[in-house]
Design brief:
The protein is 26% helix and 26% strand. By secondary structure, it is α+β, with helices and mostly antiparallel strands. Helix 2 packs antiparallel against helix 3 and helix 3 crosses helix 6. It binds zinc ion (2 copies). It comes from Eiseniibacteriota bacterium.
Length: 383
């Protein structure tokens, strides 16, 4: 069975923060935990699937590999093993759950809801689309892009205030930053903890907020970011640049910048995976007699030999002149489709020559070269 997308498994956006990943995992893992679904094989499969997705996505390095290469980037059977050989079994899944969330019991006890943690000052994630030419895709590129986002406030250096007058304890929550409510439910006593709305979980309120940023420690602005694009990316591939999204509130952690690649159409080449295809117009006499001609490639020019008797539509192959594979850098090929162009305007001399050619050829109709259409098809399937 094909592996499901990890983000889909955890029911989260591709831009989800670590906290969102954790929260989504916790919610679903609790729902499908074997202790609560004794003997239910479907729930067990789901629980294992969740554990595996969580193990990859919570780890920034593994996540990046997954974001770039999909399952192949983190799949043990593909060599870059995340779990040292074997797949993710039930005991792995249980261990992953225990490690981050402790026992099952306290999930419904003192810890309560997800609202009980420190205030989230983390900045939001930003998404940009970055256009690349086929040549940039083939060689890899470094590009500078201007990103509109929240940047740290220069007036207060992100602190939210420039004065020394300090802050007052929030009277709504008494300084804890949280509002706690005890509820009784099926699972026993539940403590529902939410972030205090008055102080946004800070526990205190700045007496003298910065007038530039209103106390947030960040303002809307621009930043120029350099993006290194590896060779071989495809339309829709994206990169997550950690910490280059919105600045956090009052020097909180910055969000991420997600760069989505968009391929600009090329006037000469058409991309087919790692191969590129271009047309080569030739004269009838070149097709008949053969020739050596120059063709454009992604990195300059190359000479190709047209064998005598070539048919229109025939594909010539320049090995290694395509786009490198994102995974192992092996380049694809350049496919050159020969197009015999029939002249529509002839000089008097050409006309005479064609007439004598016609006489020499006679009345017999021509025959298709054997396997002509099959060869065209084969060029695209790589055989
Ligand atoms: Zn400020
Ligand atoms: Zn408060």
């Amino acid at each position: 069975m094909a592996k499901r997308d990890y983000y889909e498994v955890l029911e989260i956006e591709r831009s989800a923060s670590v906290d969102e990943i954790k929260s989504a995992y916790r919610k679903l893992a609790l729902q499908y935990h074997p202790d609560r679904n004794a003997g239910d094989k479907t729930a067990e499969e789901r629980f294992k699937e969740l554990g595996e997705a969580y193990e990859v996505l919570k780890d920034p390095q593994k996540r990046q590999a997954y974001d770039q290469f999909g399952h192949a980037g983190v799949d043990p059977s593909a060599g870059a093993g995340a779990y040292g050989g074997m797949g993710f079994d039930l005991s792995d899944a249980l261990r992953a759950f225990m490690r981050d969330f402790g026992g099952f019991g306290d999930m419904f006890g003192a810890e309560g809801g997800m609202g009980g943690r420190r205030p989230d000052r983390r900045g939001g994630d930003r998404q940009i689309r970055l256009e690349l030419t086929l040549r940039e895709v083939a060689s890899g590129a470094k590009k500078k892009v201007r990103v509109r986002k929240f940047v740290r406030c220069g007036t207060c250096a992100g602190a939210g205030t420039t004065s020394q007058s300090g802050s007052d304890t929030c009277t709504t929550c008494g300084g804890s930053g949280q509002i706690r409510r005890v509820q009784r439910s099926f699972f026993g006593q539940m403590v529902n903890v939410t972030v205090c709305g008055t102080c946004r979980g800070e526990g205190s309120i700045v007496r003298d907020p910065c007038t530039t940023c209103g106390g947030d420690g960040r303002v809307e602005g621009n930043e120029t970011v350099e993006v290194s694009i590896p060779a071989g990316v495809m339309e829709g591939n994206y990169m997550t640049l950690r910490g280059l999204g919105d600045a956090g509130v009052r020097n909180g952690a910055a969000g991420d910048l997600i760069v989505i690649f968009v391929e600009k159409p090329d006037s000469v080449f058409e991309r087919h995976g790692e191969d590129v295809l271009c047309d080569l117009p030739i004269h009838p006499h070149q097709a008949v007699l053969g020739d050596k001609v120059e063709v454009p490639t992604l990195d300059g020019k190359a000479r190709v030999e047209i064998p005598p008797g070539i048919q229109s539509g025939k594909i010539l192959r320049l090995r290694g002149k395509g786009i490198p594979s994102l995974r192992d850098k092996t380049p694809g090929d350049q496919l050159i489709r020969v197009v015999v162009v029939i002249p529509t305007k002839l000089s008097a001399e050409q006309k005479t020559l064609y007439e004598s050619l016609a006489q020499a050829t006679g009345d017999k109709p021509p025959k298709f070269a054997k396997g002509f259409f099959e060869k065209v098809r084969d060029a695209f399937t790589g055989s």
